[in-house]
């Protein structure tokens, strides 16, 4: 386990300054919402996400982000002081991002970029995201990232030094301190979702099924979205679905096929696991891991990316380059089964951390604005 990020001392006079208006892309994502001071004491006002064309008036959808359009910047530049980019630029090529940067420069607006992903988990081809980073990282007036390892990689690739701030809580405070429901057995979960490009589900599931065979009262629960079995869906993958159904039919796992969970369903699912195994072959950071930390569910994360630097978790060998190290996964599962560690956040600790994260953002914005 790697040492965790240590936040700088809290700047106590942040709240006394004038408010800072931030055009955040997006504003509605849970990560961004929880970078704000819970009492509003940071004095940061984030613009509401403009509704994309075609989105209903009742929708909270923020993608594709309207704020990435240089025409939006030209029309609304007097409504914000700082432009802060997080997610949502997957469809923006380098030329479009250059035009965004030029629009911000034209109106004297600082650009802050939080580097969540050094490799986009939704894109099989690393090229487009790499090209986007080659525009954004050099152009940003300030950079933030979530772990020291990611910061070191950014320094090595672009000679830029980001501010390292941890990921804030994902789950709401009342649930963070709620006692876990007592139950028998040892439940290991793999959520295949809609088979994101960075997932290698079947090798991990097969290795887990073998590992759990010799562990009394241990069970493997695999969840997958319904669209994987839908011939009309983009995520349709009949071979993977057939393989999982075969394993379930042989009694090696319990398979649950469902639509996307809402937050309440997701927290209930995660809270019912003893160990959540992330079947990723590439990536950088994980909000899923943070949610598990909030709920007291142990995580086994691959040794690619910087997951182990986010929160206390177990690591096993798994990457696009080297494939799965099944022996290391077996060792992780056996250790978790024997020791049953409880590495869990507290509501008080997460609240204090969130206050400091918010203050650090405010301080960075204030320094950019002079």
From TrEMBL:
Enzyme category, top tier: transferase
Enzyme Commission identifier(s): 2.4.-.-
Keywords: Glycosyltransferase, Transferase
Domain Glycosyltransferase subfamily 4-like N-terminal span(s) in chain numbering: 29-165
Transmembrane segments: none
InterPro entries the record matches: Glyco_trans_4-like_N
SUPFAM superfamilies documented for this protein: UDP-Glycosyltransferase/glycogen phosphorylase (SSF53756)
One Pfam family it belongs to: Glyco_transf_4
Gene Ontology molecular functions: glycosyltransferase activity
Protein known as: Glycosyltransferase
Species annotation: Streptomyces lichenis
């Amino acid at each position: 386990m790697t040492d965790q990020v240590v936040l700088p001392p809290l700047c106590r006079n942040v709240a006394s300054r004038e408010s800072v208006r931030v055009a955040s892309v997006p504003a509605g994502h849970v990560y961004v919402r929880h970078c704000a001071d819970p009492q509003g004491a940071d004095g940061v006002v984030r613009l509401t996400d403009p509704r994309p064309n075609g989105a209903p008036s009742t929708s909270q959808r923020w993608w594709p982000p309207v704020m990435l359009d240089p025409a939006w910047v030209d029309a609304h530049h007097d409504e914000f002081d700082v432009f802060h980019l997080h997610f949502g630029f997957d469809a923006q090529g380098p030329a479009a991002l250059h035009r965004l940067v030029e629009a911000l420069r034209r109106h004297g607006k600082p650009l802050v970029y939080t580097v969540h992903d050094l490799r986009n988990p939704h894109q099989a081809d690393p090229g487009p995201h790499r090209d986007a980073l080659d525009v954004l990282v050099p152009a940003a007036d300030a950079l933030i990232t979530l772990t020291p390892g990611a910061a070191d990689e950014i320094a090595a690739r672009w000679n830029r030094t980001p501010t390292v701030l941890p990921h804030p809580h994902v789950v709401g405070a009342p649930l963070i301190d709620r006692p876990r429901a007592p139950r028998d057995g040892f439940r290991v979960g793999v959520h295949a979702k809609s088979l994101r490009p960075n997932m290698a589900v079947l090798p991990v599931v097969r290795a887990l099924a073998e590992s759990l065979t010799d562990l009394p009262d241990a069970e493997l629960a695999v969840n997958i979205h319904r669209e994987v079995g839908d011939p009309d869906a983009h995520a349709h993958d009949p071979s993977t679905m057939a393989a999982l159904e075969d394993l379930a039919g042989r009694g090696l796992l319990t398979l649950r096929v469902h639509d996307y969970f809402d937050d309440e369903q997701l927290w209930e699912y995660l809270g019912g696991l003893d160990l959540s195994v992330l079947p990723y072959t590439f990536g950088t950071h994980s909000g899923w891991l943070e949610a598990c930390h909030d709920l007291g569910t142990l995580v086994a994360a691959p040794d690619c990316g910087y997951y182990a630097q986010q929160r206390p978790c177990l690591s096993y060998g798994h990457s696009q380059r080297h494939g799965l190290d099944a022996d290391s996964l077996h060792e992780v599962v056996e250790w978790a089964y024997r020791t049953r560690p409880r590495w869990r956040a507290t509501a008080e600790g997460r609240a204090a951390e969130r206050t400091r994260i918010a203050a650090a953002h405010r301080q960075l914005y204030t320094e950019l604005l002079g």
